[in-house]
Design brief:
CATH architecture of the largest domain: 3-Layer(aba) Sandwich
Helix content: 40-55%
Largest sheet: 8 strands, mixed
Strand order of the largest sheet: 1-8-2-7-6-3-5-4
Number of helices: 16
CATH topology of the largest domain: Rossmann fold
Bound molecules: adenosine-5'-diphosphate, magnesium ion
Strand content: 5-15%
Order of helices and strands: HHHEHHEHEHEHEHEHHEHEHEHEHEH
Radius of gyration: 23 Å
Number of domains: 2
CATH superfamily of the largest domain: P-loop containing nucleotide triphosphate hydrolases
Low-confidence stretches: 5-28, 402-408
């Protein structure tokens, strides 16, 4: 037995199965209304204020490059672009032309250089265009839309009492909403841009208070936002910068009707940005419905790509052999005192394997959509702190883990 310690290694298949019927947070989110109380807005009859959305001035070093040099740079970063009039990528933070308050927050993070998606997405977003950006998880998409959001917000009139947000970010899960909020806080604090995260499975009171105090950025899961809109705790009349983050995952989770409802409440001449790790047909359809004259950037192949920093070992085996192989790997890994994430296809398998490992003395916990939010937070906390170094997750839960894991 490795250094995880633990009890007996006997396999007790008769261990009682306790089914949980907790409603998961996104189930709650999905069920909390489809926005039937929200009336469609006839935008053609509405008087809307003009707004500023193009803040981009190409750096002179970028202007001086030949087309060939731009092509070479894009190729070296695996940047592929499509659409009319795509701006050239930048090569450094300085070349993006951010104001000093943004540069200071970037320096505070100690980032050496922009990631490929940032190099191309910043000029695209800063020039006020509708943007589709596809890049793998962990590639730095959040500040690709969050930093341009700061400039956008600072160029708009101040919020008046009763105004809703200027920037709205839709995200599939609470974990992601909170992570995006943390990034916005890091980079927005210096210019006093306020934000809040609105998600299901948590008390509404504090969220309502934030909304009513006035926030420039709202990061929300779709169901809870609809709830807040229907109960008139906020409104989207001031939204001119809309981000759909993890669009593919939101569609996988069945949020399309809610997303459509929400978008119908936002003025059509807004700037819309869509971020996704993959680019399947249903995401393409959503983009063509919501974005105008869009420009697109893909990093890496147009197909889903694996992260080259991760060594992948594929073992082909029968179902029957799986558990023995798992234990063999755990034995080896535990002697290195490392943390282990096990992804499985279904909630049921997650629970089964967790039980199997625990009975066998392994410090394993599971996380998936049928767990209450409080329990999910607790499990993640135990894993991060190393008290329970084995985490079994369904892949829906995995997106929210992605960045938490990188910060372990
Ligand atoms: P994604 O949304 O593409 O999955 P994130 O935006 O969450 O990725 O970024 C993943 C991690 O990389 C975060 O911890 C973020 O702070 C960090 N990061 C972002 N941009 C840079 C950069 N230019 N250099 C180094 N780290 C970065
Ligand atoms: Mg992300």
């Amino acid at each position: 037995m490795g250094s995880y310690g633990g009890g007996s290694r006997s396999t007790d298949w008769s261990y009682p199965r306790t089914e949980r019927f907790d409603r998961g947070f996104h189930d709650q989110d999905k069920m909390s209304g489809l926005g039937g109380g929200l009336r469609p807005i006839d935008w053609s009859s509405q008087k809307v204020e003009r707004f500023e959305k193009n803040f981009y001035v190409e750096d002179k070093h970028i202007s001086a490059l030949s087309d060939r040099e731009v092509e070479d740079f894009r190729r070296s970063k695996e940047i592929k672009v499509q659409g009319r009039g795509v701006p050239r990528p930048v090569r450094s933070f300085e070349e993006a032309g951010f104001p000093e308050y943004v540069m200071a927050s970037i320096r505070a993070q100690g980032f050496a250089s922009p990631t490929p998606i940032q190099c191309q997405a910043w000029p695209m977003a800063l020039s006020g265009r509708d943007v589709v950006a596809i890049a793998q998880t962990g590639s730095g998409k959040t500040i690709s839309f969050a930093l341009p959001a700061m400039l956008h917000i600072n160029a708009q009139p101040l919020l008046a009492p009763g105004d809703g947000p200027i920037a709205l970010v839709l995200a599939p899960t609470r974990e992601l909403a909170v992570q995006i909020q943390q990034e916005c806080t890091k980079f927005g604090a210096s210019s006093r841009i306020r934000n809040t995260a609105i998600y299901g499975g948590a008390p509404k009171g504090p969220q309502i208070r934030d909304l009513q105090r006035g926030v420039e950025i709202v990061i929300a899961t779709p169901g809870r936002l609809i709830d807040m809109l229907e109960s008139q705790k906020t409104n989207l009349r001031r939204v001119t910068y809309l981000v759909l983050d993890e669009a593919d995952r939101m569609l996988d989770m069945g949020f399309e009707p809610q997303i459509r409802k929400i978008v119908s409440q936002i003025r059509p001449d807004r700037q819309t940005l869509m971020f996704s790790a993959t680019w399947p047909k249903d995401v393409q359809k959503l983009a063509s419905d919501f974005l105008r004259d869009m420009i697109q950037v893909n990093i890496g192949s147009m197909e889903l790509t694996a992260n080259p920093d991760i060594q992948q070992i594929v073992e082909v085996c029968s179902d029957f052999e799986k558990r023995a192989k798992l234990i063999k790997h755990l034995d080896q890994i535990s002697s290195e005192n490392a943390k282990v994430l096990i992804f499985v296809g279904t909630k049921r398998v997650a629970d089964d394997i967790t039980k199997y490992l625990r009975v066998d003395g392994w410090p394993a916990l599971a996380i998936h959509g049928d767990k209450e939010q409080r329990e999910r937070d607790w499990v993640l906390g135990e894993f991060k702190a190393g008290r329970s170094p084995i985490l079994i997750a369904t892949d829906v839960a995995s997106r929210g883990l992605g960045m938490s894991v990188s910060s372990l």
